[in-house]
Amino acid sequence: MKVLILLISLFFSSHSVFSVDVKLKDLVRIDGIRENQITGFGIVTGLSGTGDTKNAITTESMQNYLKNQGLSASSNPALTRNIASVIVTANIPTYAKPGDKIDVTVSSIGDAKSLEGGVLLQSPLKAANNDIIAVAGGVISFGGKDNKTSSNISRTIPKTVGVIQGGGIVEKELANAFLNQENKYRLILQNQDFATLDLIQKAIADTFGSESITSRVVSPVEIELSIPEKTDAIGVLGRLENLTITPENKARIVVNERTGTIVMGGNVTIDEVAISKQGLSVIVSGGQKKRFWDDPEKVENVLVMQEATKVSDLVKALNKIGASTRDVIAILEALRKSGAMHAEVIVQ
C-alpha cells in the first residue's frame, strides 16, 4: 500500500526555518469552558432483518417500552431482528441552553449486523452525576457514498455505528464553574511547552500591564489571570484570545496506520544511523552523496542516504521500493529510539 505524505514545509531555504504567528485562542483554553460527555441507552427500530437475535436486554427493554405506551406485551416476546439495543453518546457544549440541538452517536451493543435504515426511539442522555441533560432520537445516518476505506476499497466499514445530526435536544443547562470565579481566570495550554508558556505570559504583560491586569504561572500548563473587579472581564478575555505569539514548533510525526497517511513538519532530519528490518536496510551515512533512491531497482531494498536527510525523503524512498505502512512506522520508531531522529512519533 502506498504511503501518502503530507509535508508541512515551514522554511525559506533548506537551512532557515520560520515560525507562524498563532492566536492565543488556538493555543489555550479557559478553565471552565469545556464540553461535557453525556450518554444513555436506547432502542433502534425499523431494521430490515439486521437487528439483534439473542439479546435479553433488547427483549426486556422493548417490553418495558410497550408497557410505558399503554400496550400489553407477552412475558417473553420473540425478537424479529427489526430492533437493536444501542448506546447513545454526545458531547454537550459549555453554554448549551434548553432547546439547543446537538449531534449524537449511536452504537450497537448486541449482535445486530447493521443499524442502517433504523430509527432511534426517544432516549434520555445523562451526565456523570446521573442528571438527565438531553433526549435523543431520529433516523440514523452513515457518512460516505460507498462507506469503504480510502486505503483498501474492499474493506467495508461495519454499519453498527452511526450518527444523528441534530438528533439530541438539550433539556437542562449544565452548571459551569467559569461563572463562579472571582475575577481570576486560568488559561490552560493545549500542549505542554515551557517556552510557549513563557511567551504567553510576556504577551499578557506587554498588552495588559497598564490596566492592572496581572498573570502568574501556577503549573506547567496553567497561567492564572487576575482582572480588577470593575474591569469588563469578557472584553479582556476577548482581546486576550486574539493576541498572537510565535511558538516554537515541536518536531512531531503523525502516522495513521489504517489510511497510510503520514503528516510531518519540514524540519525533521536524520542523523547517521543504520537500520535493518526483515530484509529491508536503511543506512544514513555522513559521507554518502549519491541519491540512491532515484534508482531503487539497483539497491534491492537497501537505502543509503546522506546524513541530515529529511524524514520526508526517507518515506518517499521507502514508498518507492514498496515498503508497507507497518514497515515505515517500525523504521520511524526505530530511528526515534536510536536517537537518530529527534521527533515524536504518534501512531493513530
Outline of the structure:
With about 350 residues, this protein is an alpha+beta fold.
Description:
With 348 residues, the chain is α+β, with helices and mostly antiparallel strands. Helix content is 18%, strand content 32%. The chain has three domains: 4-10 and 250-347, no CATH class; 37-170, no CATH class; 181-245. The protein has five helices and 19 strands. The protein has a six-stranded antiparallel beta barrel with strand order 4-5-6-9-8-7. A hairpin with a 5-residue loop joins strand 7 (119-126) and strand 8. It starts with a strand and ends with a strand.
Q: Report low-confidence residues grouped into runs of 5 or more.
A: 1-18, 147-155, 288-299
Percent helix: 10-25%
Averaged pLDDT, please? 79
Total separate domains:
3
Largest beta sheet: strand ordering: 4-5-6-9-8-7
Portion of residues in beta strands equals: 25-35%
Characterize the largest beta sheet: strand count, sense, and whether it forms a barrel: 6 strands, antiparallel, barrel
Class per helix and strand makeup: alpha+beta
Rounded radius of gyration (Å): 27 Å
Number of strands: 19
Order of helices and strands: EEEEHEEEEEEHEEHEEEEEEHHE
Assembly of the depicted chains: single chain
Give the helix/strand layout.
Elements: E1 4-8, E2 22-23, E3 28-30, E4 36-45, H1 56-68, E5 84-92, E6 101-108, E7 119-126, E8 132-139, E9 161-170, E10 184-189, H2 194-208, E11 214-219, E12 222-226, H3 233-241, E13 244-245, E14 252-256, E15 261-265, E16 273-277, E17 280-285, E18 302-306, H4 311-320, H5 325-338, E19 344-347
Parallel strand pairs: 1-15, 14-19, 17-18
Antiparallel strand pairs: 2-13, 3-10, 4-5, 4-7, 5-6, 6-9, 7-8, 8-9, 10-12, 11-12, 14-15, 16-17
